Every structure is written in C-alpha cells, then in structure tokens.
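Ticket #4471: structure output looks truncated?

Reporter: J.K.
Steps to reproduce: submitted the chain below (212 residues) through the standard prediction queue, then opened the result file.
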Amino acid sequence: MAVSLNWLDSQTILQNLGSLAVFGVALIIFFETATILGSFLPGDSLLFLLGLSLSSWLSGFPIWLAIPIVFIGAVAGSQTGYWIGKKTGPRLFKQRNTFFFNEKTVDRTKDFFQHYGPRAIILARFIPVLRALVPMFVAIAHFDQKRFLKLNLIGGAAWVGALMLAGYLLGEIPFVAKNVELFALGFVVISSLPLPFELAREAIKRRKKSRG
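Returned output as attached by the reporter:
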C-alpha cells in the first residue's frame, strides 16, 4: 500500500487494498467506529463503493460473505467504543478543549442521546463522528450492556447491509459504473437521511401534542 495513500478517498483506498479490500474495509470500519480518532475515515462511501466493487472487479468475492465480515468489524468497533467509554470515558469527556473532545461535540452527543434515547444508538450509525461518540457516551451513562449489544447489532446490520447492498445492486448498472464518484457522493447524502426523518417525526408529534 502506498505511503502517500489518501485516507479520505474511498476509491483510492479500495484500489490500494486490492484483493484484500473486504478485510481491509472491515478493519477500517472497526477503527472508525471504535475511536473518535478514526472519525475522519470515509465510512459511508467506503461501504457503498465496496459493494459496487463486489459487483465488478471484486466479483470473485461473494457479497453474502463480504457483508458479515464488514458487519463484524462494525459491531466490534462499537463494542470497543462502549468498553473505552466504560473505562476512560468520564476523563475523556471532561477534556473539552482538545481537537476531538471540544465542548460543542460533547454537548451535541449528550443532547442527541438524551433526546432519542436508545434509538440514538441505531441512528448514530448513519452520522460520522457520532457513531464513534455515542457508544462511549451510553457507557458513561451506565446504559445496559446487553441492551446496547442488541441495538448495536441492529444498527450495524442496517448500516452495513443497506450501503453495501445498494452499491452492489447499483454497480450492475453501466451508467452507475461510469459515474462512481457522483453516485458515491449521492449515497453518502442518502445514508444520512434517517436522522432528518426522525427529526421530522418528532416535529409532527410535538405539533400534534400542542394542538391537542
């Protein structure tokens, strides 16, 4: 792998990983979800482009095997984040003046979890940075470990399965294959829609209550 690899470019990452792309992506997704330090990695577009690659130059690797491998990386990453939160979280969340743990990010994570509760664990999967911070925060908040694992499995399956399958199915369309960058960007935007939909649902509920 090239030393000058651009870790923000999903396509370049996959090309450098070559035949080991599935395992490499699983490790990258693990790192992105396990620690805030990996939040700069392009998780969403990487999953989509991996799915697309599995329908073209990586077609020798079955999609039914690739998804579980990456899924394990995603779930293990969040479980590691939960463990880190349990062991060192209180100290980390008090460090409000560092690059990653600044006051705005910490407060945003707290508000997100307090507002959505357990659903935040699933919704956070689709939001960069929050998918690494929420597992840590719920551990600090003494959220039940077994319940977290259950929601982690659901969120991991929804995130990995949806993005990789979308890439795989769309990759068989010639127009998509010729416009990879455009569709990768579009799907990153689409993958963030669960939160706006949730916000809209909450707004409708509040409006109904106020009218009642």
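Triage note (M.O.): checked the attachment and the full token line is present. The two ends are 61 Å apart (CA to CA).
Status: closed, working as intended.
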